[in-house]
Amino acid sequence: MVTATFEFQGYLNDFLDYPFRHRMFESACAESATTKHMIEAFGVPHTEVGRVVVNDEASSLHHLLQEGDHVVIHPPGIPVQNEEGAGLPAAPPLFLADAHLGGLARLLRMAGFDTFYDNAIHDDDVVRIAAEQNRIILSRDRELLKRRMIVSGCYIRSLEPASQMKEVVTRFSLAQHARPFTLCLHCNRLLASVDKASVLESLPPSVRNYHTEFSRCACCKRVYWRGSHWQRMQAMLKEIVADPADSDTSETH
């Protein structure tokens, strides 16, 4: 056994048992324990760890702990956007929301973020699909996020979808990538503009009389237009996502 000292920074303290929060503490560690092993033993999924510092030097989750090590664990940093756009990824990330986050998945799709969601998905499939499609797993299940095969994930702290959305937008600096109403809310597929004549038979009479611009999902064939529901969704997104980009696509049928 070896003894190391640990310090968790910022919101990572919320994962810890109360006696360990916002303080430096010692803990016995197995001789073969890594920083990842101990961090997760304290209740913090590795997906929530940004920078690891051991004995005042940058380290990693794979550091083999030694007697007397002082380990400081930081949460992920928020990317900083400058005038030239540095700090933003070339494309927005892809997400996978677990079976309990249907409301969040819908809001992410509404804002234009590719989000896989299946309310019957098994945890093993969550891990597999995320790895195959390079998706960030969004979950409120800490044990799921601790799985070794998961590279990127985010523990969702809030219970209400709009607050969950704000967490994700802030964590991944998504605001300037938003493309509202470009994805089907049901299929997660890109919408395409269509002529009114091609969808006329599927429109309610009031929509036929007052709307001229339509989009349709090639997968489920749902038709979207800018009706009152679109206006309510647009207002909600403006509150959640700072300065969402304008879009010419539409609402749901």
Q: Can you walk me through this structure?
A:
The chain has 253 residues and is α/β, with parallel strands linked by helices. The chain has three domains: 2-73, Beta-grasp domain (Ubiquitin-like (UB roll)); 94-177, Rossmann fold (3-Layer(aba) Sandwich), CATH 3.40.50; 182-253, no CATH class. The chain contains eight helices and twelve strands. It has a five-stranded mixed beta sheet with strand order 2-1-5-3-4, with helices on one face. The protein has a four-stranded parallel beta sheet with strand order 7-6-8-9, sandwiched between helices. It has a three-stranded antiparallel beta sheet with strand order 10-11-12. Helix 2 packs across helix 5. Residues 95-236 form the Mut7-C RNAse domain. This is Mut7-C RNAse domain-containing protein. It comes from Keguizhuia sedimenti. InterPro entries: Mopterin_synth/thiamin_S_b (IPR016155), Mut7-C_RNAse_dom (IPR002782), Ub_Mut7C (IPR027798).
Reconstruct the topology from this structure:
Blueprint (H helix, E strand, L loop, with lengths): L1 E7 L16 E5 L5 H7 L10 E3 L2 E2 L11 E4 L20 E4 L4 H9 L4 E3 L5 H11 L1 E5 L2 H4 L7 E3 L5 H11 L19 E4 L1 H4 L5 H6 L3 E4 L5 E2 L3 H13 L13
Helix pairs in contact: 2-5
Protein name: Mut7-C RNAse domain-containing protein
InterPro entries: Mopterin_synth/thiamin_S_b, Mut7-C_RNAse_dom, Ub_Mut7C
Pfam families: Mut7-C, Ub-Mut7C
What is the succession of H and E elements?
Answer: EEHEEEEHEHEHEHEHHEEH
Low-confidence region ranges: 80-88, 244-253
CATH architecture term of the largest domain: 3-Layer(aba) Sandwich
What structural class should be given to the helix and strand makeup? Answer: alpha/beta
The averaged pLDDT comes out at 87
